[in-house]
Design a protein that fits this description.
alpha/beta, DNA-binding, homodimer, 9 strands
Amino acid sequence: MRRSGLRAKVPAPTVARLPVYHRALVDYERRGLQTIASAELAAATGVNAATLRRDLSHLGSWGTRGTGYEVRHLLTQVDRALGIDKESPIVVVGVGNLGRALARSGNFSARGLRVAALLDVDPEIVGTEVAGVPVEHVDALERVVRREGAVIAVLATPAEVAQSLADRLAGAGVRAILNLAPVVLHAAPSVRLGTVDLAAELQVLAFYGTRDRHRARRAVVSPGDAAAGR
Amino acid sequence: MRRSGLRAKVPAPTVARLPVYHRALVDYERRGLQTIASAELAAATGVNAATLRRDLSHLGSWGTRGTGYEVRHLLTQVDRALGIDKESPIVVVGVGNLGRALARSGNFSARGLRVAALLDVDPEIVGTEVAGVPVEHVDALERVVRREGAVIAVLATPAEVAQSLADRLAGAGVRAILNLAPVVLHAAPSVRLGTVDLAAELQVLAFYGTRDRHRARRAVVSPGDAAAGR
DNA sequence: ATATGTGAATCAATTCACAGCT
DNA sequence: AGCTGTGAATTGATTCACATAT
């Protein structure tokens, strides 16, 4: 397709696979590989080689026929597509077990993400620090979002309050919300909603695991399906 | 389609939506609703009404024309499809922040899930209890899996050890693994692999959030996409 | 009158297969 | 000789629209 610099319209499934490619490429670079063929990268990421090539072509990427892709160059392109160059500050709302786990998650900065602020209501928690980030009261949500220039928020609250907090986040200018609460949220179409419900994931696995041995396909799965647009 | 009792072959996207329907139906039942029309349930779950009806038809469900679906009956069918009747014991490997969060997650039993065992290597953690479940040493993995009759496991370990633990889990007879480590796992096709990588989800949101205001679609997302077979 | 269940149409992504480049 | 990039074929899910049931 060869879009000049910014791609036009990358299919959602492709976007969902980009972080996987990113990880694999970082790995190859670390191991000193110069070039990589689509077939090899495809095997490492569990993706069909033709699919991988088409994915890359959506980014306007360029491989060398007969040789493959230059690892470093390709990584740069994937990074740029994912916006890893400019770090995204994240606001985490709800500092329970899950929110805490997120805040402490180590491998964020390597992925262009930074937990910039933590919010909660519990007076026991507000005022403490988690992973060096102070927990502020959720009353200050709008102020904190603007202060940090946060475009992305994570909702790790009880389901009951998730919708109203999502509304407030949207109002404060957040552009995307990752909802970890087990509830279906509704938002204006200008706000991108992703949901990860671990219990639901397990229920899905239970469907396949419990039941008779279907033709159990699927060795590898791309993440981001939940956040990627339909 | 009307399969007698066991469905033949439910599309993966349908399976991924079942937990969402389940939650909505529990809610309707709690509120005393007798019947529900596909249009209403669809609105609540953010799914197209025709899609919802086709999903239900895959379960061999039966609504009443002119009236809708009986809430209690439909819930029973969804429960049965998801295997919520028989509780699934889960083994959680890796009791770090994320594993701990999972173990403490309240809403599991209502979903047919039970954290039956916790495993870790850290001598500081082994021997302690989390949410009433003792943390055992990962050396005992095979024994614990058999003792609990666990069919599903969660991998919440560092990425480096995830593959070898997945191999051991598969060897021990686990049928499905939810991988929370940021790494692509490979397994025999008899083992169902799902991956949830929160950082990757955020990267995907960053792709859309950072970038220009695409035709930002997607108000609601079904979970389980990662675990559902493609 | 109203809402289901489903053929048929549509839309989108995956995959094949090969022409074209190095 | 080898591997990319991509038209064309395929596969699969979503959605429309309506005949069918209550």
